[in-house]
Design a protein that fits this description.
Structural class: alpha/beta
CATH architecture of the largest domain: 4-Layer Sandwich
Number of helices: 16
Radius of gyration: 25 Å
Number of strands: 19
Largest sheet: 6 strands, mixed
Length: about 550
């Protein structure tokens, strides 16, 4: 038996466009005994509160029926979408896979486990399946599961989130192979874990596993694809390409199939995720190009390189906005970067605008010492200029702040935080440097060496460096990673040997910056714990 896994890049809510994607891939898979899309592929994942719109769900089923008729001459096709719950109790929908065969919607298979952690909130919309669901196809019995249904094996998880084990139930019901329709977001290192889990499940139950994942960026989430197949011995027999659309046809019994080469180093994975996420965010929002401020620093340099790779350098505008505190070296570094990438640039000097603010504020500020107020005004002047250019030219403004800065509030609201997409807001400062060095090591120097070696600075006053206000980034990022991603407490951090005053200050900064993060642009998630849709901290709080 040959099963085709359709690894597609749907756009949330684009029912017609997604149907075209599915139909095209299904025709390329002609000859397979069954073709399978990813989870909710017809709607695009995650549809979030679009699911509360009954008309949207109804139109998706009309699109599904048209798709069934269009593909009536092909083998059966499993399509992910939301299914209305006809019962009087429970959530109004099921997260389902519909079987299309001979021009009609023959039946559906429903998801059992509904995640409500991190970026997931499926219990808000869906009712769980009541029983295991088997598909008999020819002489083969297939168990149909959806995403989370395979992530609850008692031998692989120390703390299981659910009592039910859909895989175990499918095998007990007679499944000779398990198919899983997924929309599993990317985080660095996750694919190795996925493959180890799938291999272990296949070996444990002595059944092949076929896993089809979505690819592409939707809002803050990036999906890496890498659909794969394991035989009943737990051996990898097929893998689709990462971070791009693909189609693989495999025999669950272990017949010949392709295993796409991949690079699992963190820098390669994160780079590809950021490029894909930026490209899809811009294009799916209906734009063709972006702009960003070029300061000559490491963060804006990396974001510019990502944008140029994602959209083409002709679609990226770099803006230099010097002040009396901007060093000549910073201007030269920004211009060298733009030349290396082939970017168009605009140069403006904000000195006169700063003087106008000083004049207007002289009287109300009389008797007050200069402090970060004046520094923030500089950032907000730049933010206003960038937004004016964004509006005038119809370009998405990319913010260039990293995760370390966003965590502790080392950023100016309505200033450098202004924009439509925060490309590296989930990349810690130390990882920014690693990515930049990795990028340069791939070929010719993109990011000027001077940028990599000078002390990080916002240049909002003479002689300023980031470390005037923050611990060294190596120490700061270590504390933040333990506190934010590992959930270590203050006491646990102190037990690790960190200085008490430093720990208390960093944790206080993280808490006090929550109001800024609530107003930040969407950021691309690449770690297990990002400041995005999965971060749900209160603003008014005294706990830290």
């Amino acid at each position: 038996m040959k099963i085709a896994l359709l690894q597609l890049n749907p756009t949330v809510g684009d029912l017609q466009g997604n149907a075209v994607l599915i139909a095209s891939a299904a025709r390329r898979a002609k000859g397979a005994d069954l073709a399978v899309t990813s989870e909710l592929a017809l709607l695009g994942y995650p549809p979030r509160d679009l699911l509360l719109n009954a008309d949207f769900v109804e139109r998706s089923w009309a699109a599904l029926r048209r798709l069934a008729q269009e593909l009536a001459d092909l083998s059966p096709l499993l399509v992910g979408l939301a299914e209305p719950n006809p019962g009087e109790a429970g959530r109004p929908l099921f997260n389902s896979a519909a079987l299309l065969r001979e021009g009609r919607v023959e039946r559906t298979f429903k998801k059992t486990l509904l995640p409500t952690y991190d970026v997931f909130d499926e219990d808000r919309y869906f009712e769980p399946a009541a029983e295991s669901q088997i598909l008999e196809l020819g002489t083969t019995v297939l168990g149909i599961s959806i995403c989370e249904d395979i992530w609850n094996d008692r031998d692989q998880w120390r703390h299981r989130r659910y009592h039910a084990d859909p895989v175990q139930e499918l095998v007990a019901a007679g499944a000779k192979a398990i198919i899983n329709l997924s929309a599993s977001p990317f985080t660095a290192g996750k694919q190795k874990h996925r493959e180890a889990m799938l291999s272990g499940l296949a070996k444990k139950y002595s059944v092949p596993f076929l896993y089809v994942n979505q690819v592409g960026g939707n809002d803050d989430l990036v999906f890496d694809g890498r659909s794969c197949v394991f035989d009943k011995e737990g051996r990898l027999v097929a893998r689709a390409r990462g971070f791009e659309e693909d189609l693989i046809i495999a025999d669950p019994a272990g017949g010949t199939a392709a295993i796409a080469e991949d690079d699992f180093t963190p820098e390669s994975e994160i780079w590809r995720a950021l490029v894909l996420g930026t490209r899809d965010y811009v294009h799916k929002c209906g734009f063709s190009g972006v702009l960003l401020g070029l300061s000559g620093g490491i963060d804006s340099s990396l974001v510019a390189a990502i944008a140029a790779q994602a959209l083409g350098p002709q679609n990226v505008l770099g803006v230099l906005m010097s002040s009396p505190y901007t060093s000549r070296a910073s201007i030269e570094d920004a211009l060298t970067l733009a030349q290396n990438l082939g970017l168009k640039t605009i140069a403006m000097n904000i000195s006169d605008i700063m003087k106008s603010f000083d004049r207007e504020l002289a009287k109300p500020f009389q008797g007050q010492q200069k402090d970060m107020t004046e520094e923030n005004i500089q950032a907000r002047i730049r933010g206003n200029l960038l937004m004016a250019l964004s509006n005038k030219f119809g370009l998405v403004l990319l913010t260039t702040g990293n995760k370390s800065e966003l965590a502790v509030g080392y950023c100016t609201i309505y200033g450098d935080m202004s924009g439509g997409l925060a490309v590296i807001s989930d990349v810690p400062k130390t990882a920014v440097y690693r990515l930049a060095k990795w990028l340069n090591a791939r070929g010719s120097e993109i990011i000027p060496a001077a940028v990599l070696h000078k002390a990080p600075s916002a240049e909002l006053r003479f002689g300023q460096t980031d470390q005037d206000s923050l611990p060294p980034y190596e120490v700061l990022d270590d504390i933040l990673e333990r506190y934010i991603e590992r959930h270590q407490s203050k006491e646990e951090l102190l037990a690790e040997g960190f200085e008490k005053a430093m720990v208390e200050r960093v944790l206080c900064l993280v808490k006090n910056a929550e109001f800024k993060r609530r107003q930040a642009a969407p950021g691309l998630k690449v770690t297990d714990r990002a400041f995005g849709s999965g971060w749900r901290m209160p603003v008014a709080s005294r706990a830290w």
